[in-house]
């Protein structure tokens, strides 16, 4: 038996060291100095596994809130300083973890072009949108991030030009020619079990714009959640902002309307005042 059989292989020793450093890094109630030292050691190792372990600091909140934010921001700077080496670990972190992903997105935004970050976040949203989760945090963070950073701005309570191709213009059959990835990723979340997720998805769709599939999905959500005042109000607001009509559903929608909402002669949702 050789000496390396006694003490383990180099890879095993490195895995053990990483595991211990990650444990120290994510200890919520330990001294701040211990977490900071572990973060510095992981950053100095500068390997994909160490950088992935470094990302785990984002998943816990230390006992002292102010110190927690400072520590996380320091980790963010360390990951950004690692440059291209950190891209793959950060993307893996975003894929695997349920919490702390807003920090991961901030890091990725500083490392990669906006279009690539958009594609990454959209792909993540498309994946989690079809999965059940007890905690909706990841879905809510992705929806909020996409809306805040990439959706075109909409003036408060101002309807946007009708984005629905071929509707009420005699053009084609009213179906979308191409559905954008953002809309395709958002639509399944309109059926999520969480009220907050359905509302966030509704708001996101009203910012990104909706094609025929989006219009129909919003109307179906309105009809399903007819007794849920929060969701109903958000859907009506979204249809209003999108200047979308309720063609094919007017009687069912009309009976749900209360002030200040009404339908104009074209079947579009309007708001008085």
List the SSEs and their pairings.
Blueprint: H1 3-7, H2 10-25, H3 32-45, H4 48-55, H5 65-82, H6 87-96, H7 101-111, H8 114-129, H9 137-150, H10 181-186, H11 195-208, H12 212-224, H13 229-241, H14 250-254, E1 261-263, E2 269-271
Antiparallel strand pairs: 1-2
Question: In brief, what are we looking at here?
Answer:
The chain is mainly alpha-helical and 273 residues long.
Structural write-up:
This protein has 273 residues and is mainly α. It has a domain at 142-150 and 159-273. It is 60% helix and 2% strand. The protein is built from 14 helices and two strands; from the N terminus they run H-H-H-H-H-H-H-H-H-H-H-H-H-H-E-E. A two-stranded antiparallel sheet has the order 1-2. A hairpin with a 5-residue loop joins strand 1 (261-263) and strand 2. The relative contact order is 0.07. Mean pLDDT is 88; it is low at 160-177.
């Amino acid at each position: 038996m050789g000496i390396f059989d006694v003490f383990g292989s180099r890879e095993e020793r490195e895995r053990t060291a990483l595991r211990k450093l990650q444990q120290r890094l994510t200890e919520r109630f330990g001294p701040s100095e211990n977490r900071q030292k572990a973060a510095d050691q992981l950053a100095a190792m500068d390997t994909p596994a160490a950088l992935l372990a470094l990302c785990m600091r984002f998943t816990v909140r230390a006992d002292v809130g102010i110190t927690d934010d400072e520590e996380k921001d320091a980790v963010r700077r360390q990951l950004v300083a690692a440059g291209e080496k950190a891209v793959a670990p950060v993307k893996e972190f975003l894929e695997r973890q349920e919490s702390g992903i807003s920090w991961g997105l901030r890091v990725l935004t500083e490392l990669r072009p906006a279009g690539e970050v958009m594609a990454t976040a959209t792909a993540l949203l498309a994946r989690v949108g079809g999965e059940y989760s007890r905690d909706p945090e990841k879905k809510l963070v992705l929806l909020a991030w996409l809306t805040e950073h990439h959706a075109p701005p909409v003036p408060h309570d101002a309807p946007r030009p009708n984005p629905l191709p071929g509707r009420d213009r005699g053009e084609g059959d009213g179906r979308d020619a191409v559905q954008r990835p953002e809309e395709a990723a958002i639509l399944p979340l309109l059926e999520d079990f969480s009220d907050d997720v359905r509302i966030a998805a509704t708001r996101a769709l009203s910012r990104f714009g909706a094609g025929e599939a989006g219009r129909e999905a919003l109307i179906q959500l309105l009809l399903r959640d007819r007794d849920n005042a929060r969701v109903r109000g958000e859907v009506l607001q979204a249809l209003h902002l999108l200047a979308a009509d309720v063609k094919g559903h007017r009687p069912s929608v009309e009976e749900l309307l209360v002030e200040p909402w009404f339908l104009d002669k074209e079947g579009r949702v309007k708001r008085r005042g």
